[in-house]
Amino acid sequence: MADPQALAVQEKKELVSKEEQTVPARYYVQITDIYETDDALTVVMEIPGVEKKDVEVNVENDVLRVEGRVDFTKYEGLEPLYTEYNVGHFARSFTLSNRIDQQQIAAQLEDGVLTLMLKKAKEAIPRKIAIG
Amino acid sequence: MAMFRDPFGTFLQFQQALDALRASSWLESSTSGGGPFPPVNVFRKGDDIVILTELPGIRKADLQIHVKGRTIRLAGAKPVEYGEKASLHRRERLAGSFDRAVTLPVEIDADRIKAEYRDGILALYLPRAERDKPKAITVA
Predict the structure, then answer these.
(1) Contact A111 B120 (CB under 8 A)
(2) Bond from prior residue into B56 cis (ω within 30 degrees of 0)
(3) Which B positions 24-83 lie with beta carbon below 8 A of chain A?
(4) How many CB atoms lie within 10 A of CB A3?
(5) Does the beta carbon of B105 lie under 8 angstroms from any beta carbon of chain A?
(6) Which residues are registered as beta bridge partners of A98?
């Protein structure tokens, strides 16, 4: 590509999970960035088309699971003529390596991007030890 | 529409319909290319055309839409930022700029185009020009 900064299309990956979904619809794995700072783990996910109320985030047994459901009624009456991407719900889980303070998970949804701030539990924050 | 009659599995049927049309040649004859980002889905709603495209992480202010004749141009930039002291565990989101033009095979009424941007999805409502609509002819 001539312009290295030009955006490329990222093909959606269909979710392959051990459990089956109860509804007959396709799920995709949302594109995710994860980065860590001293006191928190930040998870950034792209879930276009998902409204705030349709996002579900939970942490159980050190597994973070995020599910976003798209409102299918918005597509009613639309007859596809030409398509380049598919539409579906999103679901993805991560095993967390750090202990997370479950009471302190902050979530923000803006322009189809979900940002989760997972504060590390106190015992997981590295303690600086001064050499005397 | 027959496609939505069954309340169960309608979404799956819709998804299958979308898949069936992937890489069809509907927009292929267009000469105005540009990059393939953002991917677009084109729908028909009655007489009109609806274009949907996913632009997660792109702010409304960073998005430019131009219409000229039958060609719609979408351009903009997507920033991806991390804090300064962050160590990256997983990096999948792409940052960069895009510029894409799509030429429709039907004439549209440029003055009545509506654009909506919500939850990372841009919807363009493109009314078909009156003069382009087919006329019914009665057999005398």
Answers:
(1) yes
(2) no
(3) 24, 26-27, 35-46, 49-50, 54-60, 78, 80, 82-83
(4) 11
(5) no
(6) none
| Nearest residue in B to A33, CA atom | B91
Q: Which amino acid is at A64?
A: L
Tell me which chain A residue has its CA closest to the CA of residue B17.
A80
- pLDDT tens per residue across all 132 residues of chain A: 445 578 888 888 888 877 777 777 888 999 999 999 888 899 999 999 999 999 999 888 888 999 999 988 888 889 998 888 889 999 999 998 767 888 888 999 999 999 999 998 877 677 778 887
pLDDT tens profile B67-88: 988 899 999 999 998 877 888 8
Contact B13, A75 (CB under 8 A): no
CA of B137 vs chain A CAs: smallest distance (Å): 25
Q: How far apart are CA A82 and CA A60, in angstroms?
A: 41
The continuous run of DSSP H or E covering B16 comes out as: helix B10-20
